[in-house]
Amino acid sequence: MRFNGITFNAVGSMIQVEGQLVPADFTGPLKEFWRLSASKIRLIQRAYDSRLGSPVFTVRGQYTSRGWTEWTQGFEIGSAILQFDATDDVSFLKQARADTRRKMTPHLTHFGVHDHGFNNVSTYGALLRLSHEKRHTAEPWEADFYRLALKGSAAVQARRWTALPSGGFIHSFNGPHSLFADTIRSLRSLAIGHLLGHVALGENDQPFSLLGRLLQHAQTTALFAVYYGAGRDAYDVRGRVAHESIFNTHDGSYRCPNSQQGYSPFSTWTRGLAWILCGFAEQLEFLASLPDKDLPTHGGRRRIEACMRKAATAAADFYIRNSPTDGIPYWDTSAPELHKLGDYLNKPAEPWNEFEPVDSSAAAIAAQGLLRLGSYEKARGKHGSGKRYFQAGLRVLRRLLSDDYLSRDPKHQGLLLHSVYHRPRGWDYVPPGKKVPCGESSMWGDYHVRELALYVQRLALGGPYYNFFNIGKDGS
Question: Do the beta carbons of residue 441 and residue 57 sit within 8 Å?
């Protein structure tokens, strides 16, 4: 493998990196991106009927709701917070603060989902972060309100617990037998609860450690959701990810992989892969911020870091190997009609093709993971892998900022085109004359491309490094 202007080639083809991209290359395109982003947020605020529930994905360019679980409202409100963060337009901050107080309370005590990191860290957490960064002035009561909300959310999330002989995991909305790959990024909720010094209590006033459950969930996910080419089954390819892992809740034994939104239990749903990549990269950054004294009772820094890094790098390498040359993946790496696209890994993804949809939301999530992992690796002297991951992430961003993926239609409420929600259930809109979903957006895709853009913009402008846990500690 080579870098700088080079095609990565190990298995099949890989993401191509042309030249030496740097964050400053994106300064101009990002200004236009945020202008477009602002128009989309305002359009939703004017036109979306909130009585329908949280906006989830677009149909013919208009956001609609889809009853499954309530996991996207934090992305809606969080998008306005990111918009303020990037542009200093206080109208978005004002609206987000009001909407957080008015709409987000039910999400704090939602015992039925594994998505607290998505909903509550994207709102209460982001507002507390901006206050800590002196980007806006929060009155003492307001900052305490955010802290209290985040502590409660962390405890509710951590209470959704399935114990195993080796540790345990936060189970998905499917029930106590079900571990989702997605949840690795919702661990942000437990991380913030730990930083705020919260003590969670169970039966008979027995405390349980938020950090302990975060680390146990991460290690269980790394062990069972990520494959390492060790012969675990006939489909064990290093970096492959199972969307869902199934356990026997009577004895805690692992039973099998499964997939809710992918093609099969033995293929890789690319958004699940992206959650793993981004979530583990982010948790490695969080782990690095913790003092050594927090970690010995949980296995020690070296063991925990090795486990997380093994999962993150395996997922990153798999993503690079199994994406088209521009870094935009199809919705599943084993989707049944991919072969009809010919040598699809040796050319850019084709979002308007007739056989299998791409998933731009997976690309936006994965790109942030690649950039964070690249930064993490370089900071630890691993310059080869660090450069590789970082350049791949910038390549994906460059493609996402193109006219093929940004929605410039002033009537289309979405920002990032060609996102896919649930292909097996057929939930995604297929336009007239087309055979597969295309041309539509999702609230998580729009949010994560904004978060990706903010991350790179801060690097380009020399701002504070963007992470979710820059909130102060213990009320400070």
Answer: yes
User: Which pLDDT tens digit goes with each residue over 382-414?
Assistant: 999 999 999 999 999 999 999 999 999 999 999
Q: Treating both helix axes as pointing N-terminal to C-terminal, what angle do 383-400 and 443-461 enclose, rounded to 10 degrees?
A: 120
H-type helices in 209-263, by residue range? 210-224
CB contact at 8 A, 150 and 124: yes
d(C-alpha 389, C-alpha 398), whole Å? 14
Domain boundaries, the chain: 6-461
Residue 123: DSSP 8-state:
I
Whole-number average pLDDT of the chain: 95
Specify which of 3-7, 67-71, 373-377 reaches the highest per-range mean pLDDT.
Answer: 373-377
- Could you give the 3-state DSSP secondary structure of residue 201? strand
pLDDT 10s digits, 204-237: 999 999 999 999 999 999 999 999 999 999 999 9
Find, among 280, 246, 275, 109, the residue nearest to 169 by Cα.
Answer: 246
- What are the structure tokens assigned to 256, written together? 């099998």
Summarize pLDDT for 237-275 with one digit per residue, the tens. Answer: 999 999 999 999 999 999 999 999 999 999 999 999 999
Cα within 13 Å of Cα(363), Cβ side: 35
The residue type found at 275 is W
Q: Could you please report the per-residue DSSP string of 281-330?
A: HHHHHHHHHS-GGGSGGGT-HHHHHHHHHHHHHHHHHHHHHTS-TTS--B
Whole-number Å distance between alpha carbons of 367 and 329: 11
Is-contact 330 279, C-beta < 8 A? no
Residue 409's CB: how many other CB atoms inside 10 A?
10
Side-chain half-sphere exposure of 30, counting CA atoms within 13 A: 23
Sheet arrangement for strand 254-258? 178-180, 244-247, 254-258
- Distances from the Cα of 279 to the Cαs of 145, 237, 310, 334, in angstroms? 26, 20, 13, 23
Assigned architecture for domain 6-461: Alpha/alpha barrel (1.50)
Above 50 in pLDDT, residue 476? Answer: no
d(CA 423, CA 428): 7
